[in-house]
Amino acid sequence: MSMTLFLILCLNGVQYGMLLFLIAAGLTLVFGVMGFINLAHGVQYMVGAYLAFFFVQLTGSFFLAVVLSLGAALIIGLLLEYFIFRHLYTRTHLDQVLATFGIIIFLNELAKVLFGPATLSLSPPELLSGSIQLTETLRYPVYRLVTIFIGLAVAVGLFFAVSYTRVGMLIRAGATTPEMVSALGVNIQQLFMIVFGVGAMLAGFAGVIAAPIFAVEPGMGDNILIVAFVVIIIGGVGSIGGAFVAALLVGLIDTLGRSLATMVLSAVFNPSFASQIGPALASMLIYILMAAILVFRPKGLLPAKGANA
Amino acid sequence: MKHHLRNSIATLAMFSAMGSTALAEDIKIGMIVTLSGPPAALGQQIVDGFQLALDQKDGKLGGQSIELIVEDDELKPDVALLKATSLVERDGVDIVVGTVFSNMLQAIFKPIVQSETFLISPNAGPSTFAGRNCNPYFFAVSYQNNQNAEISGLVANEEGYENVFMMVPNYQAGRDNIEGFKQTFNGTVTDEVLTPLGHQDFSAELARMSTSGSDAAYIFMPGGMGVRLVKQFDNAGLSESMKFLSVFTTDETTLPGQKDAAVGMLSAGTWAPDMPNDANQAFVSAFEAKYDYVPGSYAMQAFETANLIDSAIAKTGGDMSDKDALRGAIKAAEFTSVRGNFAFNNNHYPIQDFHMTKVVKRDDGKFHTSFVRTIATDYADSFAQDCKM
Amino acid sequence: MDRPLILAAFIFALLLALPLLLPLFGAAYLTGLIIKAMLLAIAAISLDLLIGHGGMVSLGHAAFVGVGAYAAAIGLESGIEDILVLLLITLAVTGLVALVTGTLALRTSGVYLLMITLAFGQMIYFTLTSLAAYGGDDGLTLWNLATLFGSDVVQNGAGLYYVVLGTLLMVWWFVHRLSRARFGRVLRAARDNPQRAEVMGFAVKRYQLAAYVIAALIAGVSGLLTVQYAEFVSPALATWQRSGDLIVVVVLGGLASRNGAILGAFFIVIVEEVLGSFLHEWRLIYGPLLVLMVLFAKGGLSDLFAPRGTRRSAH
After folding, report:
1. What is residue C114's three-state secondary structure?
2. Which domains does chain B have, with CATH numbers?
3. What is the pLDDT of residues B351-387, one digit of tens each?
4. Which of A55, A205, C74, C96 is 20 to 30 A from B83 (CA-CA)?
């Protein structure tokens, strides 16, 4: 395997990792701060992608659609919080799982009814649709590079927001001792609503920027939700830094594993056997990593201090 | 019981949820296709194609009123099985038409054929039931899965490809495609990549493809995977340096998503919407007039299935109880195929012509595959010799 | 007799009579649906032993159904046809897998347990998809089915119905006895306060591991029966979505209630069939229905049958 190929794989892994980070960031805060298991977080990723599709059709401008989608994703998140999630904070995790599972079923079906069952696609904006020559035969799309920088920017922004702002301080405090925070007279309800809204918006944002790379279809959030959970467990529940490191790690392992597992195995076993179990093994890698983390370092790689989940 | 479409004249186009109150002389046909999730587009084509034929004949096949019961397998084997048994036991259907996917066919096969009900596949054509396990109650109107891949190998030879990179999803049909292509291709296979089903990001695979030194790619990526792959292939600038030859990847169900990115890509198949024969042109224009989209091979095969059943029932005079007579009438395949040549082999899979097709943009802005040239005539599958029928 | 026993007696009497009653209404075809619901109920009762009594939420339980089904299917393909031998193979394989994964998984608890069981479930699922000789992702049609001493009584038809019903009854009774024995009390003590149970001198982890393995064995048996019913196996049996469905059944029915698991299973199967018959987009109703059940029917279905004042009892 050539060095360029390896670099491209790494670039892809980083890019996938950034996408995972955008989803996992909200998930880990909602989970860490509120101790709330929100399975519907993945479906908000799908909602973001459909919103982008809808607004591009409506306005014809990708950038306008991004802004409108973010606003709409935020509103949808807040509505869900107000009408449903708010009533579940004090309930058991199982009740939360069941209710948010119901929301997934509903929104997946709604997307199908509104937009049809077929896979939709969205072109990247004209401005970002070019590509950069990486090797003689391969160009790397500018849009993908941009998503890497967007992910980095969001990560830096979130890190500062959580570390240095008042809301961020409350979030960290809320993750450790929610009773104390509310005893201090902070409106914990409002804090939760902010965390939830931002989380929903980030997931929606991930959906928006993923729409031109992948494709838009009902149920697209289901599998990525599971991977996002893997990310926050590996990173440490409630930890933004942990989510970032773990998202990169999972992105890289998954991407490299898919390409290399079969190759590595065929060095040891015969090719047909290797191509038979290689893909299965590659799909398992992130789960093996998570199981190992849970057994040997249950609090995750970079645990949030005193997280209560 | 999902859509319960009755087509007896008295209750034409009536929707009913429960019960079976059809007239006694109605012949019941059950249909099991995938109508949930992204692949629902394929199932819908099959429903539409079959319905078109039925409507053209005033809700009758072979002169007999037909009650069509459409069920959704949801792409879940246990659901497919339950729907199959209820069609056979509850509704007492005479014929089951299904399925889109091979794994769903596997799930429903045994209970249907063991109840001595005819099962006619409008699309799925796995090798499983083509050889040793061929069955007197099963017919495939479509093709045998390996054939399109074998023809693709011939296309690659004719087009002068020397180094080919292969990529398929990691499931049975994917592996069948690799085997089929290698059987006929004379050049060098640079790499074989198996991706998970429903794969999202092909950038790693495209990177491997671009550094593999191949002059062409052979791809089998049905449905949403195909939409994503073709767009990413085009975005990565590979369409300039490599040929893209595929099956079930750039067809009328995926082209509305792929659009210009797919133009010029080659496929192997049994049919294209612009096949130059009268029956076909009548079919395509009637279909587009009724449903306002370009029919794909799924719709065509369903249309053919309905016409096949029409010819068989006409031949037996509507007698569904004499199974041997009905089987003989189906096997005779005395209908005008929009594909041209069509006959059943001893294993009840078709013997037909295969062609090379190419994606083009029509004047009205829609996309479709276009007939280029015929690659093989009266082509039969290689499993038939193991079938003792 | 207490209320759960009366309800159970009623449920089983009804299930016993159904094959005789259904043909009177011309609805014999529904037996397949009921077998499906009973198979779901068997797996759900076993998961409820973990969740309801042990407080151990597994998101990988369907994998054991898959392991059991594949163990039986591979046995059948190898020419073993006696159902009792197949049962032994199924139990041995699922037990072994559960022992290994359980030992590792139970080093964690709470949400972490949920995630590690998901991880093991996914590993099992992907392993099943790589069994190319047994159909890979497509699954495998089984042309030969198991027999009982050479008789086909355990195959499709009325025989299989009563075999599944009998198994459901046995599983119900077994878990009932288990939960009332010291085993169940220790599990619940560990669920409510692990430290205290530990201090009281119980090797809590061993009890939990035993519960985990027992639950897996029962799930494996439901896998074996699924093979007999479906005459087909595929990795779809072992997806995480199926594990999620099982959790839904358990929570919907009410925790620590075997009747609840049965009611939950029948509720889901019937809702799907009835709603689905009226509306192809039945999930638009089903999803909100789940949300409303959580918001307003807190104790699950089984509590609807309990007298006021005793709701949310955990036995």
Report:
1. helix
2. 3-143+276-352 (3.40.50.2300), 146-269 (3.40.50.2300)
3. 999 999 999 999 999 999 999 999 999 999 989 999 9
4. C74
Mind listing the pLDDT tens digit for each residue in C194-250? 888 888 888 889 999 999 999 999 999 999 999 999 888 999 999 998 999 999 999
Q: Once rounded to an integer, what is the mean pLDDT over residues B5-19?
A: 34
Tens digit of each residue's pLDDT (9 = 90 or more) over C15-68: 999 888 888 877 777 888 899 999 999 999 999 999 999 999 999 999 999 999
- Report residue A265's pLDDT band, with 50, 70 and 90 as the boundaries: confident
C290 CA: distance to closest CA in chain A (Å): 5
> Who's near C32: CB < 8 A, 6+ residues apart?
B82, B85, B86, B89, C229
Residues of chain A contacting residue B259, judged by C-beta atoms under 8 Å apart: 121
pLDDT reported for residue B8: 36
Contact B237 A131 (CB under 8 A): yes
According to DSSP H, which parts of B57-195 are helical? 77-89, 102-114, 145-158, 172-184
Lowest model confidence (mean pLDDT) among A87-91, A94-98, B11-15, B179-183 = B11-15
Residues 18-47 of chain C with CB under 8 A from chain B are 27-29, 32-33, 36
Subunits next to C (3 or more Cβ pairs <8 Å) are A, B
Q: What are phi and psi of A216, to 5 degrees?
A: -100, 120
Nearest CA in chain A to C299: A95
Contact B339, B353 (CB under 8 A): yes
| Spatial contact of A215 and B257, defined as CB atoms under 8 Å apart | yes
Of A4, A121, A143, the CB nearest to B227: A121
CA distance B50 to chain A (A): 20
Test B235 with A143 for CB contact under 8 angstroms. yes
Specify whether domain A3-296 bears CATH 3.20.20.
no
**B92 in contact with chain C, both atoms CB, cutoff 8 A:** no
What pLDDT is recorded for position A135? Answer: 66
From CA A127, how far away is CA B304, in angstroms rounded? 47
Instruction: List, in sequence order, every residue forming a beta bridge with B139; answer none if it has no partner.
Output: B120
Best to test chain C binding among A105, A112, A224 (most C CBs inside 10 Å): A105
Tens-digit pLDDT profile for residues B262-300:
999 999 999 999 998 999 999 999 999 999 999 999 999
Best residue in C129, C137, C143, C268 to probe B by mutation, most B CBs within 10 Å?
C137
Fill in the amino acid letter for B152: S
For residues C157-193, one letter each, b for 16 or more C-beta atoms within 10 angstroms of the residue's C-beta and e for the rest, the string is eeebbebbbebbbebbebbbebbeeebbebbbbbbee
The answer to whether the Cβ–Cβ distance between B170 and C129 falls below 8 Å is: yes
ipTM over 0.90: no
Longest distance between any two alpha carbons in chain C, whole Å? 60
Beta pairing partners, B247: B220
Contact call for B78 and C236, based on CB within 8 A: yes
What's the rounded Cα separation, in Å, for the pair B328 and B325?
A: 5
How many A×B Cβ pairs under 8 Å? Answer: 115
Closest Cβ–Cβ partner in A12, A218, A275 for B203: A12
**Segment C152-162, tens digit of pLDDT:** 777 776 789 99
Q: Pick from B170, B190, B203 the residue to mutate for testing the A interface (most A CBs within 10 Å).
A: B203
Domains of chain C and any CATH numbers: 3-304 (1.10.3470)
Predicted confidence (pLDDT) at residue B228 exceeds the cutoff of 90: no
Predicted confidence at residue C193, as pLDDT, reads 86
Chain B residues contacting A via beta carbons under 8 Å: 35-41, 44, 170, 192-196, 198, 200-201, 203-208, 210-211, 223-224, 227-228, 231-232, 235-238, 241, 253-254, 256-259
Q: Whole-prediction pTM value?
A: 0.86
